[in-house]
Amino acid sequence: MPAPPQPISLGAIENLLPTVNFASHAAAEAQMVWGPRAIPDYQLFYIQSGEAVVQIGKERFVLSPGDCALYGPHCPHKLTMRSEGMFIGIHFLYSSPSLAPVHPAFGIENRSEEELSSSVRSSYKLAIAGPEELELPPYFTIPGLEPILTRIVKEYLNGQPGYTIVMRALMTELLAAIARNQLTRQPKSDDQRKIDPALLAISKEPEKNWSVAELAALCGYHVIYFSSLFRKCTGESPKQYLISERIRKAKFYLLSGEKMEVIAERLGYASVHYFSRNFKEETGLTPTEFKQR
User: Fold this and answer.
1) Where on the phi/psi map is residue 66: left (φ > 0), alpha (ψ -120 to 50), or beta?
2) Angle, nearest 10°, between helix axes 238-255 and 223-234?
3) What is the pLDDT of residues 177-187, one digit of tens each?
4) pTM for the complete prediction?
5) For residue 74, which of 78, 121, 122, 158 is within the disulfide window of CB 3.0 to 4.6 Å?
6) What pLDDT digit, counting tens, does each position of 188-198 carry?
């Protein structure tokens, strides 16, 4: 029996630069088969109608309308339509400096049934917050995905000016939706629950200069124990976490067109100069450079 492959880290979700290589919306006849094969990128296979079976390594998933499979280049797979139906297929890369689509057909490799059945599915992990990573599911059902998938297909087929950057934005939204759905399915650890009041307070009032003692008191713990627990759960000290939350909200406000003076005041900075300096220390870019990029 082959040993399970090591999980493949995709990096932090905030740093993803997804590129759509191919997108299609098509009809398929009953018993239509793709594979066994290995692809050069990643694929989302979404069933609109009918039923399909996806085999990834030894694992088999039955897809009904609204179901989606997700797999990558590291393991052979096979798609079989059990009945006639409609599907949406998106080939993409999680992170690529280039926006130009590279059609996957040139990199698809045929595999044997033996290679398929003897392989083991690879797992893919995204860094969300702190030291923990989130494993993306190979099979899922998430309400609301179909409109995003349909828009990606339309952008790919129409090829209007700027379509590649629009596809990147839509793909980022799609991946965020998958990650959030997976997070809601993971039970919180006891340690995570203990610091939830502090996390909620920082999220609601990032402009407040929260002291560690105030945050510890919200959770009902001694400062030393709270600080140790907080770092264990988030990978950051309470002070650094507060700064990170401010920068995250600052990015949103900047991209929403807010003026720097307004953002600085809203997030509790004494001046625009201090806000700009803190932003560059955390991101490596000035607020103006971040907006330009």
Assistant:
1) left
2) 50
3) 999 888 776 65
4) 0.66
5) 122
6) 667 778 888 99
